[in-house]
Amino acid sequence: MDLVTLEQRLSAAIAPHDLLCHPFYEAWSKGELTERDLRGYAAQYAHQVRALPALLGAALARCENRDSRTALQRNVDEETGKDGVAHAELWSRFAEALGDARDEAPLGETTEAIDALRALADGGDVDALAALWCYETQTANVSRTKREGLAQFYAMTDERSVSFFALHESLDVHHAGELLAAVSRATNGDDALVSRACERAADAARAQWRFLDGVERRRQLAA
Questions:
Q1: What domain range is 35 assigned to?
Q2: pLDDT band at 1 (very low <50, low <70, confident <90, very high)
Q3: Is the pTM of this model over 0.85?
Q4: Rounded Cα distance, 51 and 99, in Å
């Protein structure tokens, strides 16, 4: 199966949980979030940022293809700042710009989302790679929209504050492309395995959506 067809099938699988259609991100794009909403989001998403290297590492441990392992290791190195700034530090800069960089315990939905992603990463290589493809492609898709919303509605334009979003709107397109190729190698044209990959990508999309359910629930309670 060619990469275009594979991407089309995976994209169709995650479309029902396109994060840009979640009420929380829709509110972000409309400038309807308060600074308290953004601070709460920053504190919760920090848990996901810190969890990602371990998810990538779990996939790496289960992946046998050399090219796929190389791509995953490069992703881990970039996340942890081996050749630059760790992405968790970039996220901390965003939190600091909001005036409150304190840690807070994860909401139930945050924990559920991370646990679901961890279970996928701990599965076979098809499960892990498809889930991570979903994670990276969704992050790439929403990063630009979030950065633009911060500039338009919250006057946050300095490079330090939005560096996480600016980086991921381009870098994660590359990561998603590498993971798509890895999924292709793992499925090797087997339609049953492609269907499984689509199911696991959809599971990952639901997990990311579940995370947003938590911050949206808190936003509504505070309204």
A1: 3-222
A2: confident
A3: yes
A4: 23
